[in-house]
Design a protein that fits this description.
Blueprint (H helix, E strand, L loop, with lengths): L5 H10 L9 E4 L2 H12 L6 E3 L4 E3 L5 E4 L2 H9 L3 E5 L3 E2 L5 E2 L2 E2 L7 E2 L6 H7 L2 E5 L33 E3 L2 E4 L8 E5 L5 H6 L19 H11 L12
Parallel strand pairs: 1-2, 1-5, 5-10, 10-11
Antiparallel strand pairs: 2-3, 3-4, 6-7, 8-9, 11-12, 12-13
Helix pairs in contact: 1-2, 2-6
């Protein structure tokens, strides 16, 4: 399909995180994941619950659909019925995520957001990640501090799952015997070599890496005319 931007492929890749999720609370963090969650709700995930981030359930256009009291929100969070897509300042081969600091936590070179709710999120419900700028500074061999819990630290937590990591270069999952990161698809125009050079550890790479799926004509219309007519997606991925 011609005329599809890299940002729109990223929207599709993020939307796919919620395919088949059923009636769960979607919590996208970032412009591209937010467009993706709303697109998923309008197309293949009609039971998805969207929130304004405070106390309301909303429709894809932002109008009120219901009330979500904090007690019920916590019940969804701790019972595996939420799927958040977070960002990461660092992420490693097993899906450990860092948003707290760079360097030794006792004397960090740079202070970031802090741990926040990352441990509770990752141990209690599915958590995916969105990385708008894929680089060795983000995809590191070992995170400086574990905030979001990866597969090597989850200790069999019943709701722990990392469905996918989406970057501006491709899509990644953990469908390997040791649950290390695997290259699942490449966005059009991106090569395996580009991804490998921008990653600070050795990725699992299948013999044939499929392309990230094309958006349908209807999905493109919804992205451009209904969900994101202002083009906010290009603030995170310009290409």
């Amino acid at each position: 399909m011609t005329g599809v931007s890299r940002a729109e492929y990223c929207v599709i890749a993020c939307a796919e995180a919620w395919r088949g999720a059923g009636e769960v609370l979607a919590s996208p963090m970032g412009l591209v994941p937010s467009v993706g969650a709303r697109l998923a709700r309008l197309t293949f995930a009609p039971d998805l619950l969207l929130t304004d981030g405070e106390a309301l359930l909303v429709r894809p256009d932002g109008t009120t659909e219901g009330w979500l009291p904090y007690r019920q929100h916590l019940a969804l969070v701790t019972g595996g019925r939420r799927h958040v897509m977070m960002g990461a300042s660092q992420i490693d081969r097993f899906g450990n995520q860092n948003i707290s600091c760079i360097g030794d936590w006792e004397r960090p070179r740079r202070q970031l957001l802090g741990v926040r709710g990352a441990p509770v999120n990752t141990l209690n419900h599915p958590t995916s990640y969105w990385i708008p700028r894929h680089s060795r500074r983000v995809f590191v061999d070992r995170v400086d501090m574990v905030c979001g819990v990866g597969y090597d630290h989850a200790a069999g937590a019943p709701h722990h799952r990392i469905p996918r990591v989406v970057s501006d270069l491709g899509v990644f999952d953990f469908a390997t015997p040791d649950r290390s990161m695997r290259l699942a698809s490449l966005h059009p125009g991106v090569t395996v070599e580009q991804v490998s050079q921008a990653t600070g550890f050795e990725l699992a790479v299948p013999d044939e890496v499929p392309p990230t799926r094309e958006p349908t004509a209807e999905e493109l219309r919804l992205i451009r005319e209904v969900v994101d007519p202002a083009g906010t997606r290009t603030r995170e991925v310009a290409a």
